[in-house]
Design brief:
Layout: H1 2-8, H2 21-30, H3 36-49, H4 53-57, H5 61-68, H6 74-92, H7 100-103, H8 111-121, H9 131-139, H10 148-158, H11 164-177, H12 205-209, H13 217-226
Helix pairs in contact: 1-11, 2-8, 5-6, 9-11
Protein name: Endonuclease III
EC number: 4.2.99.18
Cofactor: [4Fe-4S] cluster
Length: about 230
Amino acid sequence: MLRCLTEEFPDAHAELDFTNPLELLVAVVLSAQTTDVRVNEVTPAVFARFKTAADYAAADRTELEELLRPTGFFRAKANSLMGLGAALVERYGGEVPDKLDELVTLPGVGRKTANVVLGNAFGVPGITVDTHFGRLVRRWGWTSEEDPVKVEHAVGELIPRKEWTMLSHRVIFHGRRVCHARKPACGACPLARDCPSYGTGPTGFEEAAKLVKGPERDHILAMVQGS
């Protein structure tokens, strides 16, 4: 299944736009309860206005909330970013730390956020257990755990550490494009032959193919038709 995912999404990546660790950390905090697309629409103005941790710490709350409004829960997110900026300045000289146990001490940063930052900003392998990842690895029978930390450790034992970050991207891509929560595209899924949950969604190719999304759609359907 890992080989198939690698063929399906060779270029999978973080779908949040960023140019440095602080921008990625901010983008991940903003991605809660909204889409990466919406976050990417908002962050250019945020990043132009707030360039350092100190800038967030000293932010004008009203201005920051207004910039964040389209992402939803903007008051709570403004609180998180201001607290995050202050904590980075006080504890880490304004720099984003590159260690999991340090990242998770920051306001609004859990293991999921920390692993995204480690894997994509610092090249430190990490497994990102978001809703897509947890749903898919349970569907595939890789683990029955529900707790994200237990899921992270269970999958980490199955997959070589060097693969963790790309595995996370590929599973999340697959969840967004093929293996949807309510109606997975089973009949147009490259992983179908190895999936114990095959049949959860439509198994006919034509019907399932209509459910496949994303720019990789033609490639995914060609994989299924050629197998």
